[in-house]
Design brief:
By secondary structure, this protein is of the alpha/beta class. 47% of the residues lie in helices and 15% in strands. The chain is built from nine helices and eight strands. It has a five-stranded parallel β-sheet, sandwiched between helices. The protein has a three-stranded antiparallel β-sheet with strand order 6-5-7. The longest helix has 15 residues. The two termini are 13 Å apart. 31% of the residues are buried.
Length: 220
């Protein structure tokens, strides 16, 4: 198939669909999703030192310090499953993180295949973020309006009836998270364009259509 073994970065605003698309690609091509947000949420739940440091920052919608994030991704990317390719979802989010990633991959004699910007206008983000929730058991993502389970209250994927909403998915934190994206993460777009890696797709489209654009952008 088309994307096996690829190393991809998904960029885009919070609530723009990076996580949804990364999960679809993982399912279709067996390339592992590396979501630093998921890793941090797991660390918070487990009460690890990283989790204790990140908790309040995440709830406020700000960015966790670069040194912490680089440490988190460095140990994950060295695990054997990443040898079959990976999709970075939520990392890097700053120029220092991108520079650290570049050095890390160079050391491992790996390169990136593509950086895909999933572009979604700010006006759509609030509605997308405030309505979303996930299966508490398998993590499948849903939305009050845009992606309901086939049977109300039952996860399509694993049948669980327990769902969770993220603590930071509130109208209050969306503005802070969008600001962090525009100020600290958007400078990565020219950074990767200069390296000939950047492609932009329309993230405002329907989920399947975004996936089709994404596969074409990486494979093409
Ligand atoms: P996400 O699930 O990607 O929306 O991430 C949720 C929150 O985790 C963000 O709002 C940040 O507080 C934190 N976070 C995740 N990834 C990073 C990163 N690469 N750098 C800094 N903070 C991050």
């Amino acid at each position: 198939m088309k994307l096996e073994g690829k190393r991809i970065i998904l960029m885009g605003p919070p609530g723009g669909g990076k996580g949804t698309q990364a999960r679809v690609l993982q399912e279709m091509f067996g390339i592992v999703q590396l979501s630093t947000g998921d890793m941090l949420r797991a660390a918070v739940k487990a009460g690890t030192p990283v989790g204790l440091q990140a908790k309040a920052i995440m709830e406020a919608g700000a960015l966790v310090p670069d040194a912490v994030m680089v440490g988190v991704i460095k140990s994950r990317i060295a695990e054997p499953d990443c040898a079959n390719g990976f999709i970075l979802d939520g990392f890097p989010r700053t120029i220092p993180q991108a520079e650290a990633l570049e050095a890390m991959l160079e050391e491992m004699q790996m390169g990136l295949d593509a950086v895909i910007e999933v572009r979604v206008p700010d006006e759509m983000i609030v509605a997308r973020i405030t309505g979303r929730y996930a299966c508490a058991k398998c993590g499948a993502g849903y939305h009050d309006t845009f992606q309901k389970p086939k049977v109300e209250g039952v996860c399509d994927v694993c049948g669980s009836t327990e769902f969770i909403r993220r603590k930071d998915d509130t109208a209050d934190t969306v503005a802070t998270r969008l600001q962090a994206y525009h100020q600290q993460t958007a400078p990565l777009l020219p950074y990767y364009a200069e390296r000939g890696l950047l492609k932009t797709i329309d993230g405002a489209a329907a989920i399947e259509d975004v996936t089709r654009q994404l596969v074409e952008a990486v494979a093409g």
